């Protein structure tokens, strides 16, 4: 069954008001506090004892594979790999190689069932797609993200998402008839059952032991209740006996994951609480813990999700996809009166939400054909989605008997910095090394942020200016400058300081 066809019925259900946790946009403060915060001004003119502009750069339009943004190709989705691989027309190896070889793919994504990663207690038994995906990412300079589904409609009633060893230990509840399959019904596990919780805790720990802090892993989706792990069972009831049990279970499972994944970003689905299982609480606690936000729709979506995603804290990334046009079949795409195809219309809304990622699903051949026929969509996303930072201006000032360097970083991307941006100034011989941070999320999408470095007395000459993204506390990844000017082999751009005797000094007062 198509997930969006199933969900269309759910959004027509009457809203059920809850008084315990209101759906709202809350004050999330200023984000993570940096330990080495740079002075970020304002740098008023009466402070000047003489100044020069020593670097100014041109914005680049070329795509960059920076952490915290990108187009996401699927090596596995809830129904498996590509249609050709499922039909035996290509091998799994060929599918993974094709999707990872597309020049516009930045991240490879696996969305599979629990049974695809564990077949017995005490250890992981990863499906072959995992090794293939990780190997392709390592060879091609890509990253990997994943979701483990605790429930999936795709293979019911023949198979449920949990592994066989758990199937006999946990009661399952029939929640409604599967369309087109006679008397067969969807089955959901009792998530609150002690055996389920025991096995879930082990699964979380096993996954973290293998993937937490792995530099290849871009993010991990929160394992949530219900169909495809999205926090709902559409217009079917939940298997819980009451709302209190459902919310308590959802909160407990969320807490366990947030407490475990400290080095790897975790992403929470923004699905409204249509199944009354505590999603409002889950979303609030996850965002406050620094979780990224995601939605599996972008057009057929409730107003509250669009509001939450677009107005999320600026230091959090947003991950967007849409299942309606997942095949990228150019023969089936309709165009409006302006000649815009529906999928391009969908994907360009990613920029309206200031999002960081857009998902491409599994069909490599169709994606290549679509990009050839309609290149504008991917081009616009790759040059505007997420963040794109460069040192737009760098000034040198005389202050306190020495030199001060003020760096103004411009972000031409749609989104803020998904974490904390570090700046690093280093002399060519490495003897001088200064670093510090902007406030979390800065510079925001379309904005600028300034920061200063006070140099040791008497220093002049060249400096290399580079940036890193602290994507989680203590986890830093290099960021490529989005400028036309050349950068050094280590990713830094050269700043040439002027001597005391240079005739170009200006005076502000």
Strand content: 15-25%
Helix content: 10-25%
Q: What do the pLDDT scores average to?
A: 92
> Largest sheet at a glance?
8 strands, parallel, barrel
Helix and strand layout, with pairings?
Layout: H1 3-10, E1 51-56, E2 70-76, H2 83-86, H3 92-101, E3 107-113, H4 128-140, E4 143-149, H5 164-167, E5 172-177, E6 185-189, H6 194-211, E7 217-221, H7 243-260, E8 266-269, H8 279-288, E9 292-295, H9 303-310, E10 318-320, H10 342-352, E11 357-361, H11 364-373, H12 376-384, E12 389-399, E13 402-411, E14 420-426, E15 433-437, E16 448-454, E17 462-472, E18 475-479, E19 493-496
Parallel strand pairs: 2-3, 2-11, 3-4, 4-7, 7-8, 8-9, 9-10, 10-11
Antiparallel strand pairs: 1-12, 5-6, 12-13, 13-16, 14-15, 14-17, 17-18, 17-19
Describe the structure.
This protein has 12 helices and 19 strands. It has 2 domains: 3-26 and 70-149 and 209-384, TIM Barrel; 45-60 and 387-496, Immunoglobulin-like, CATH 2.60.40. The model is unreliable at 8-24 (pLDDT under 50). The chain has helices at 3-10, 83-86, 92-101, 128-140, 164-167, 194-211, 243-260, 279-288, 303-310, 342-352, 364-373, 376-384; strands spanning 51-56, 70-76, 107-113, 143-149, 172-177, 185-189, 217-221, 266-269, 292-295, 318-320, 357-361, 389-399, 402-411, 420-426, 433-437, 448-454, 462-472, 475-479, 493-496. The strands form 4 sheets. It has an 8-stranded parallel barrel with strand order 2-3-4-7-8-9-10-11, surrounded by 4 helices. The protein has 509 residues and is α/β, with parallel strands linked by helices. It is elongated. Helix 10 runs parallel beside helix 12.
């Amino acid at each position: 069954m198509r997930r969006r066809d199933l969900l269309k019925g759910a959004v027509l259900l009457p809203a059920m008001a809850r008084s315990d946790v209101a759906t709202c946009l809350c004050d999330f403060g200023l984000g993570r506090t940096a330990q080495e915060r740079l002075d970020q001004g304002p740098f008023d003119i009466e402070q000047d004892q003489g100044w020069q502009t020593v670097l100014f750069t041109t914005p680049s339009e070329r795509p960059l594979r920076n952490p915290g943004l990108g187009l996401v190709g699927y090596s596995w989705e809830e129904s498996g790999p590509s249609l050709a691989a499922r039909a035996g027309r290509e091998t799994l190896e060929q599918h993974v190689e094709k999707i990872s070889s597309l020049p516009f793919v930045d991240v490879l994504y696996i969305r599979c069932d629990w049974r695809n990663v564990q077949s017995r207690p005490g250890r992981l038994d990863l499906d072959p797609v995992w090794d293939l995906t990780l190997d392709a990412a390592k060879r091609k300079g890509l990253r990997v993200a994943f979701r483990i589904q605790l429930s999936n409609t795709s293979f019911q009633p023949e198979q449920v998402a949990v592994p066989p060893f758990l199937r006999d230990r946990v009661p399952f509840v029939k929640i409604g008839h599967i369309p087109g399959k006679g008397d067969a019904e969807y089955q959901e596990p009792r998530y609150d059952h002690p055996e389920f919780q025991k096995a879930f805790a082990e699964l979380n720990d096993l996954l973290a032991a293998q993937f937490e802090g792995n530099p290849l892993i871009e993010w991990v989706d929160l394992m949530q209740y219900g169909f495809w792990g999205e926090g709902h069972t559409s217009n079917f009831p939940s298997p819980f006996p009451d709302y209190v049990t459902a919310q308590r279970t959802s909160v407990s499972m969320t807490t366990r994951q947030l407490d475990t994944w400290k080095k790897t970003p975790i992403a929470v689905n923004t699905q409204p609480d249509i199944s009354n299982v505590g999603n409002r609480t889950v979303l609030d606690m996850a965002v406050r813990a620094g979780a990224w936000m995601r939605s599996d729709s972008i057009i057929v979506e409730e107003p509250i999700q669009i509001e939450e995603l677009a107005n999320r804290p600026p230091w959090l990334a947003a991950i967007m996809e849409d299942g309606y046009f997942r095949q990228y079949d150019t023969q089936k795409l309709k165009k409006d009166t302006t000649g815009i195809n529906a999928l391009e219309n969908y994907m360009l809304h990613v920029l309206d939400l200031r999002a960081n990622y857009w998902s491409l699903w599994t069909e490599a051949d169709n994606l290549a054909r679509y990009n050839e026929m309609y290149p504008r969509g991917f081009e616009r996303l790759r040059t505007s989605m997420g963040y794109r930072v460069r040192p737009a201006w760098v000034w040198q000032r005389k202050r306190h008997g020495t030199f001060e360097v003020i760096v103004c970083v411009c972000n031409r991307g749609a989104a803020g910095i998904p974490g904390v941006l570090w700046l690093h100034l280093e002399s060519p011989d490495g003897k001088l090394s200064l670093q510090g941070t902007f406030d979390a999320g800065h510079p925001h999408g379309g904005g600028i942020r300034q920061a200063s470095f006070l140099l040791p007395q008497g220093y002049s000459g060249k400096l290399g200016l580079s940036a890193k993204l602290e994507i989680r506390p203590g986890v830093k990844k290099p960021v490529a400058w989005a400028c036309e000017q050349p950068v050094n082999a280590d990713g830094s751009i050269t700043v040439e300081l002027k001597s005391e005797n240079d005739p170009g000094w200006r005076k502000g007062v």
